[in-house]
Hints:
This protein has helices spanning 33-40, 59-75, 95-98, 114-117, 124-127, 163-173, and strands at residues 18-21, 50-51, 55-56, 79-82, 99-102, 105-108, 133-135, 146-149, 152-156, 179-183.
Amino acid sequence: MMETIMLNIRNEFDQLHSALVHDASTLLPVSELARIRQLYGNDFDGEEIHHPESGIWQVKRLQQQIACFHKTLREHGVELITSDNVEDAWLQFFIRDLGFVIGDTFFVANPAGKVRSLEIQSLERIRARFSKCIELTTSTIEGGDIFVHQDKVFIGLGRRTSEAAVDELRKHTEAQGFECMVIE
């Protein structure tokens, strides 16, 4: 039997003991854009691979940066919990978008669009290990829009996180003493 992972996140600035990560090995190069569009159709608008300052991503460079980040975390005593690879989940490296911890609970996000929703499968093996896990299903929400600080949860509204999802999250977090603060 796998060891249960006890969760307790009340502040994004506290010392990190463990982190859920992915190695970005499933990233597809820009040369595969036709395949990506075939897989996802209208769910893929290209925003996922374009940065306003540095342009279109370089897969090898991203993978090297992520490997360096993981090495740095390990050097500082952080246990890395690696998510599984999912076939055709070519954008699978922003693990925070898929799930996040508030208090003692791991929340499984509900990503916007098929491009990201496939990635949720990468958490199936791991989520059984978390002491408490809730799947958010009402509407779309991504962990990159969530920030925990003391007794407040700051939530950014936008294209990927909806008001309905905030209401669902609020129901679960208020019982733990957190106040949800929406940022538009």
